[in-house]
């Protein structure tokens, strides 16, 4: 499953970790959680830090790292399980695949390094095991300077420095995830006229990922109610005037993610009001991508998107005033309340298990401002960083019907003009963008963003 | 979401539980487990006992039951979450939907009934909460007579008596799951000639379920290696001479399952050897279904299948000897090692969270015999019990290459004759069968079992 390039990248990751982190580290892969009874489980997903350094999604495994050397702790399945699950690779074969210098049974973990650093896994059964085997608390990493868990923080910081920039193994995987995701969205667009429900379009999209043996990297959003930002139910019928917002991404079998959003008209044709706001969101998207290069502050991209949206809404007549002043007052955030993007890698919000430690540069914290509080990334861009760019426009009742907000922004919103855009509940356009030494490369550029091209795909008139 | 019939069945279930179980019971619904970071979760599945009595899959809820009365403990989402997740029903609205007599915040659980019985949930985070809030261990129910957890055992036994027989609400759901599952398998058959991989067929099948807003009730098996009984990976290409074994079932949004297996030729035509063994498995399937009626011991159905298979293998020349004697020696289990079926309901192995307490009648235990040890159900059948009937024939290397077994059964297997059937790795035919007062009804009978009809669907010649 691993190519020679993959194996050499794994070796390099461990070597670099050994240079950035002194001492021993133990990382658990986790186990598949039970669904309704013990034997009926959700699909296994190994923890991302484990995947980053071990390469393969081995269930119930631990790796020990010290000075660039890898020890694999894993128990071969009991021979009786071959009846139910077929033959398994031996521990020695797996150790060879991933390039582990040593391999031992799981029972050897406790004695290997009782003072090792670790990072808590999401699987709560395995988290209990971490606490027991290490004989100490293993609290979540939050980015705070907790003295007791210093070694874990050091390990987290060392891993962040590695994982912020994607190597050749990662990029091959991320391109594969992007490619399959593009194909899945295209299937969604091309099949929309054949279906009458959100659920049916979701099925078309996810079936493309499934046919490539990829799970979804996160719960797909396939909705005519795009104003619900994390809408992961699919109960609605499609009506001719609806916009369908699709935020869906594949994850490769080795765990690498894509994260893509498109919004298209169910009928195959945007209304004039939909088109105005679609083009505005696209302008923000394009402006951000054009501005990406190493050294640029991601927060400035967010403010550029805010500025583009505020300015466009003034032109359309929905907002009143000077765009700069509107952004300073966070008036744009009535319609674009979330951040412009985030890190992407093994996790769709990469390293979000570490709180804001990965997303925010040292010394920086979330800002309380309405227009900035949901920004997940505030760092200068570096080459080989992969980020999403995902501006949006939404009419969210929880914001627009909020009496306090209506009063606070009463002078700068033209509510009558806004009412003319009632056929726009939510629009988002999101691509996966790799920072390069010269600027950037959009990994998902094969998926159309221009309104006429999107319409053509929905209408089925593009081969 | 709940019909008046559903609501009246829920009321009746609670009333009956109140008659069979004295005292108070608390049942937790659980929470969605995290996948790779806290906010990225697997789809939520409420615990089945909760679903049985509450009706709706409410996340992070607890119900209190006493003398047929229901108290709902649940916290409404924080208003800030409306931005991300949209508006939510109020606790009062949900209480009204499910017919709860009282509704309280979650913080009221601890004081409501500290001596209540409960059943451990699969979600390990919630299981910790059960232990903390009740201030006592909440061990898994295993069917053993553990003194300390007597009240939990009593509650389990009372619930088993209810859940063994499906009421009108359950049957409407189970029929819906069966219907969607039949459509999914038909899509799989009809699309096989268009595809070249297991993964692509799986995608076709699951997309039908997804389009109906149904998850899979368990990890689908879609494999050309049917000899691996619980094969839930999809890496293989389809070759013209392969048989494809598909074991896949939908679960309704309210949690009710189907569990169906068909085996079809990738080319659209069984070879002569495949057809011989297919017809043999089908004969066992049909014999069991014909024998089902109230009062019949499920174990006798298993032995009937074993007898049918042993007898057929003698006719074919793979086994040598008297069929009765072969079954007594468990020779049939070389090729049919698993049980003939199991309970089906909210869980695909219904109530398997209670160990064998539901599957085995009081006083009965698993038998050590090779041919019986994997039987999951050993009870006399009752009207409105839903069971699977799923005989199979497999060539499993872990069994057939086992030197001890080859010696033990050396005199009764014709290995040369068996070698002529090398194009049969695994065949299983499984239907969902409801026991009725007169006999039984196959809920999944719309899916063909006869070889010529299966071939016609694969060849696309059946409308």
TrEMBL record, chains A, B:
GO biological process, one term: proteolysis
Keyword Nucleus: no
Residues covered by the Aminopeptidase P N-terminal domain: 5-132
Catalytic activity: Release of any N-terminal amino acid, including proline, that is linked to proline, even from a dipeptide or tripeptide
PROSITE patterns: PROLINE_PEPTIDASE (PS00491)
PANTHER family: XAA-PRO AMINOPEPTIDASE 3 (PTHR43226:SF4)
Species for this entry: Acaryochloris marina (strain MBIC 11017)
Cofactor(s) recorded in Swiss-Prot or TrEMBL: Mn(2+)
Family: Belongs to the peptidase M24B family.
Enzyme class, broadest EC rank: hydrolase
InterPro entries registered for this protein in UniProt: Aminopep_P_N, Creatin/AminoP/Spt16_N, Creatinase/aminopeptidase-like, Pept_M24, Peptidase_M24B_aminopep-P_CS, X-Pro_dipept-like
A GO cellular component entry from the record: cytosol
Record flagged with keyword Hydrolase: yes
SUPFAM superfamilies: Creatinase/aminopeptidase, Creatinase/prolidase N-terminal domain
GO molecular function: manganese ion binding; metalloaminopeptidase activity
Catalytic activity, EC: 3.4.11.9
Keywords from the named record: Hydrolase, Manganese, Metal-binding
UniProt name for this protein: Xaa-Pro aminopeptidase
């Amino acid at each position: 499953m691993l190519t020679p390039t993959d194996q050499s990248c794994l070796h390099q990751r461990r070597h670099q970790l050994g240079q950035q982190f002194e001492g021993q580290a133990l990382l658990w892969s986790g186990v598949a959680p039970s669904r309704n009874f013990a034997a009926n489980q959700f699909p296994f997903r190994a923890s991302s830090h484990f995947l980053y350094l071990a390469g393969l999604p081995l269930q119930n495994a631990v790796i020990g790292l010290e000075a660039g050397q890898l020890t694999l702790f894993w128990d071969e399945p009991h021979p009786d399980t071959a009846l139910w699950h077929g033959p398994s690779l031996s521990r020695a074969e797996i150790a060879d695949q991933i390039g582990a210098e040593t391999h031992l049974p799981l029972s050897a973990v406790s004695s290997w390094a009782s003072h090792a650093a670790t990072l808590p896994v999401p699987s709560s059964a395995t988290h209990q095991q971490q606490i027991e085997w290490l004989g100490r608390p293993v609290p979540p990493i939050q980015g705070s300077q907790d003295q007791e868990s210093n070694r874990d923080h050091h390990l987290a910081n060392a891993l962040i420095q590695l994982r912020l920039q994607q190597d050749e193994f990662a990029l091959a995987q991320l391109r594969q995830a992007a490619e399959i995701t593009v194909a899945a969205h295209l299937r969604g667009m091309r099949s929309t006229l054949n279906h009458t429900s959100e659920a049916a379009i979701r099925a078309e999209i996810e079936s493309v990922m499934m046919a490539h043996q990829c799970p979804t990297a996160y719960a797909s959003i396939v909705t005519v109610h795009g104003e619900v930002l994390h809408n992961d139910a699919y109960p609605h019928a499609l009506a001719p005037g609806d916009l369908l917002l699709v935020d869906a991404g594949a994850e490769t079998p080795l765990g690498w993610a894509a994260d893509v959003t498109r919004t298209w008209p169910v009928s195959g044709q945007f209304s004039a009001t939909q088109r105005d706001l679609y083009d505005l969101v696209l302008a923000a998207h394009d402006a951000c991508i054009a501005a990406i290069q190493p050294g640029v502050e991601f927060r400035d991209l967010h403010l550029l998107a805010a500025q583009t949206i505020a300015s466009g809404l003034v032109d359309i007549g929905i907002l009143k005033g000077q765009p700069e002043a509107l952004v300073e007052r966070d008036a744009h955030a009535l319609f674009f309340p979330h951040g412009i993007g985030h890190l992407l890698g093994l996790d769709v919000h990469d390293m979000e298990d570490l709180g804001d430690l990965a997303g925010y540069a040292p010394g920086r914290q979330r800002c309380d401002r309405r227009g900035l509080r949901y920004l997940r990334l505030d760092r200068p861009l570096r080459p080989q960083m992969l980020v999403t760019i995902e501006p949006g426009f939404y009419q969210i009742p929880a914001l627009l019907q909020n009496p306090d907000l209506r009063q606070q922004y009463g002078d700068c919103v033209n509510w009558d003009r806004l009412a003319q855009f009632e056929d726009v509940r939510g629009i988002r356009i999101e691509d996966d963008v790799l920072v390069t030494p010269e600027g950037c490369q959009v990994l998902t550029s094969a998926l159309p963003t221009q309104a006429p091209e999107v319409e053509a795909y929905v209408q089925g008139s593009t081969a």
